[in-house]
Amino acid sequence: MVTCPLSTSYTHCVDLDRVVCGWYWCEIMKMPAKEQTRESGRQKELAQRRVLDSFTRAKRLRRQLEALEQDNFQEDPHANLVLLKKKLPQFDSNEDTPTTKKRKKRGDHFKQRFRKTFHMLVEEEQLSMNEPPNYLTCCMPHSPAPQRKFCAVCGFPSNYTCVACGARYCCTKCLGTHLDTRCLKWTA
Amino acid sequence: MAAPTVILDNGAYHVKIGLASDKDPRHIPNCISKSKSERRKQFIGNQIEDCRDLSALYYMLPFQKGYLVNWDVQRQVWDYMFGKELLGLECPDTTAVVTEPYFNFSSIQEAMNEIFFEEYQFKALLRINAGTLSAHKRKSENPEHRCCLIVDSGYSFTHIAPYYNSQKVAEAIFRVNVGGKLLTNHLKEIISYRQLHVMDETYVMNQVKEDVCYVSSQFYKDMEIAKLKGKENTVCREYVLPDFHTVKRGFVKEDGSKQKPNEQIVRMNNERFAVPEILFHPSDISIQEKGISEAIVHSISATPKEMHPHLYRNIVLTGGNCAFPGVKERVEKDVRSLAPVEYDVQVTLPPNPVTYAWEGGKTMTESKEFSKLTVSKKQYEEEGQNICFDKFDV
What we know:
The complex is a heterodimer. By secondary structure, chain A is mainly alpha-helical.
C-alpha cells in the first residue's frame, strides 16, 4: 500500500508493468491525480474519433458513384468451371462446324483491332481533336440550385451532418445507426 | 416481293428488333446471363426466359456507359437474333437499320460497318441515332411541327436532343449521366443497407423498380406522407420478393393480407419516389449535374432563338425511364416553371416510350427517301469506311 505523494487519495497497488495505479500515473504526468481519475467516457470517445478531411471524403464519394456503374456485385457463378466447359458437347457442334470455325478466326482478328475499354475510347477522343460537339463536350454543367440533403440512413430530408465523415442524418436514432455501421468504415 | 428490312434498336439493356413488316418489335435483353442453378449453360438474350431460378443472375453486358465495348458478347447476341432460332434472316438479301448512341466513338463506328458488311454481309445498312428515328416518327405523326425535342432516357444515360425538320441540332445535344442502370443499382444499395441484402439480385430489384417506383410531382409532400404510420401512409407498399419456387415473380402485397410463412418482403416507402427523383436531381446522390428538366431548358437555350417556342411546344419523352408513372406531369411542371412565361410548354409521352424509336425506324423504311439514306454493300466495297462516315449522321 503506497500513498500518492501528489494527491491525497490512497492507491492500492504499484505495478510498474501495467499502469494500474493512480500514483504511478501521477508520477509520470506530474499532475494532480484527482483530475486524472475523473474520466469522461464521452471525451474519451471523442478523442478516438477521427475526422475525415475533404480529400478522403471526395475519394469515398467517388468510390460510391463508381459502384453504381457496376454490372455485377457477385462473383461469376461459372468462374471455376472453365476446365469443365471444354469437355461439354457444344450445342450446335454437328450442325454447322465450318461456320463456327470461320467465325472464331474472324473474332480473333477482331479482338485485336477493336478491343478497347471505355476508358481507352474516351482517351482516344480527347487526343483526336474532334471538333466539338463530341462525347466530352455534351455533358451537363452543375445545377445552379443548391444540393438537397437526405438522411444517409432513412432517406428522409435531413438537417444534420456527421462530424466525422460528412454524411447526413436526420435524428439521433439514425445517427446511432450510422455510427454503428457506415461511419469511417471502408476508409482504407 | 421487296427485300426485307430489319430494324435493330440496339439498346444497352434491351434490343428492340423486328422486320419492317412486323407490327411490333421483339424485346431481347442485350446480354448473356449466367444463373447459379444452371451451372453448365449460358443464356443469350431472351433464352433466360427458360431459366427457372433467376436469383443472383450474373450479367455479361456488351455496353459500358452506353457505348459498345464488349464485342464478343454483342456478336453472340446478334448471331442468336439473326439466326434460325429467332428471326432467321438471310443477311445478304436484307437491309439493316441499326441505332447508335449520340457522339459514338469513331472506332466503334468503324467496327460496326465492318461487322455488318463484312461479317454478316448485309445488302445495305443505315446506322442512325435512336433519337433521330423518334424525331422522324414524331414528324410523320404531326407534320405541322417543324421542331421537336427528344428526351431519350435509357439504361446508361439520358440524352436531350433538339431536332429541326428531323435534323438534329448537334451543338445543343446534352447528356445527363443518369440512366436505368444507375437507378437500379442505387435502389439495390439503399435496400441492402436499410432492409435486406439484395446486392446480387439485379434482375429482381429491377423488377421491383419497374413495378412500384414512380415520379412524384410533389416531392416534399410525399416525403411527409411517407413519414406517417399505418393507414395514413398512402405511399408505402409491401413487395413480396420471388423465391422461384412458389412465387415466380414478385408482386405488391395487397393491403391487410397476412404475411405468409417463408415470404420475403421489401418495404418500399420513400424509395418509391426518391429513386426516380435522381433523374430530376442527380445532385441528390452527389452527381453534380443538372437534372432532366433543367437539361431540357439548357439544351433549348443552346439553339437559335427562333426555335425556342417551337421546341417548348413539342417535347417528346422516349426510353425506358419514361415508363415510370408521373414522368410526363413532372417534366411538364418543372419545365413550365423554368421556361419563359410567353412560351407554351407541351410534353408528349408516346403510348410506348420504349419502342418509339423502333416504330420511327419502321416509318422511315416506308418513306421514299429511305434508299437514299442507306449505304449498300457495293458502295462500301468500292469506297470503304469513308462513305459511311459521310453518309451516316451519328
